[in-house]
């Protein structure tokens, strides 16, 4: 399975929010979701979409630990590497 990178993350966010990915660039990887304007419901929507589109599961407890786009991307990429 190909790597899950910022590009794939942006694509998922754009699908969730009708083309609006917000300030998601390399500098945003270590910023918290809340600092980027994403509330918990938005992060949950992104998670559900990723689980629908990729063979990965993210538990609520795991999601609670993924506070930045960089952590989220690394987590999904690692899971895909194991399942791929």
UniProtKB/TrEMBL annotation:
Entry's Pfam families? PP-binding (PF00550)
InterPro entries assigned: ACP-like_sf, PKS_PP-bd, PP-bd_ACP
- SMART domains xref list: PKS_PP
Organism field:
Streptomyces sanglieri
Domain Carrier, chain residue ranges per copy: 3-80
Name of the protein in question: Acyl carrier protein
User: What keywords are assigned to this protein?
Assistant: Phosphopantetheine, Phosphoprotein
Q: Which lineage ranks, top first, belong to the organism behind this chain?
A: Bacteria, Bacillati, Actinomycetota, Actinomycetes, Kitasatosporales
Keyword Phosphoprotein tagged: yes
């Amino acid at each position: 399975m190909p790597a899950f990178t910022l590009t794939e993350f942006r694509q998922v966010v754009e699908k969730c929010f009708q083309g609006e990915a917000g300030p998601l660039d390399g500098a945003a990887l270590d910023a918290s979701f809340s600092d980027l304007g994403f509330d918990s419901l938005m992060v949950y929507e992104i998670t559900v979409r990723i689980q629908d589109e990729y063979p990965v599961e993210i538990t609520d407890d795991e999601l609670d630990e993924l506070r930045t786009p960089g952590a989220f991307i690394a987590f999904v990429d690692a899971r895909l590497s194991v399942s791929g």
